[in-house]
Amino acid sequence: MDITIQPIVTEKATKLTDKLNRYTFRVSQDANKYQIKALVEQLYGVKVVNVNTAIVRGKNKSRYTKSGLLRGKSVGYKKAFITIGEGQTIDLYSNI
């Protein structure tokens, strides 16, 4: 099984990082907490204290066109909140 992980860099995620030393990632739907923890420790070389996950549902979208109303849905995803040890950091901008 191949697990993908992408950091989420938004204002809310940055505030969590500054206050609680908690980083936010977008992960594969079928990944569990143990796999996410192992992958983050391997990739970034930090000690993971806690992993919380949340499933984000896709939003309903609609727009008006010449042919009428088009309805659709955006894709849902899984979000992981990673709390790391005190005094450790993850440099998310090193790969840019």
Briefly, what is this?
The chain is α+β, with helices and mostly antiparallel strands and 96 residues long. It contains two helices and six strands; from the N terminus they run E-H-E-H-E-E-E-E.
How would you sum up this structure, described in words?
The chain is of the alpha+beta class and 96 residues long. It has one domain (5-84): Alpha-Beta Plaits (2-Layer Sandwich), CATH 3.30.70.330. Helix content is 23%, strand content 40%. The two termini are 26 Å apart.
CATH class: Alpha Beta
Ranges with pLDDT <50 over ≥5 residues?
Answer: none
* Side-by-side strand order of the widest sheet: 1-2-6-3
**Averaged pLDDT, please?**
93
Approximately how much beta-strand content do the residues carry?
35-45%
What overall geometry do the principal axes of the alpha carbons give?
A: elongated
Radius of gyration: 17 Å
Number of strands: 6
Q: Would you tell me which CATH topology applies? A: Alpha-Beta Plaits
> Which sheet architecture does the biggest sheet show?
4 strands, antiparallel
Helix fraction, binned, reads: 10-25%
The appropriate CATH architecture is 2-Layer Sandwich
Measure the end-to-end span: 26 Å
Helix and strand content put the structural class at: alpha+beta
The secondary-structure element order is EHEHEEEE
User: What is the number of independent domains?
Assistant: 1
Q: What would CATH call the homologous superfamily?
A: RRM (RNA recognition motif) domain
Structure annotation, total helices: 2
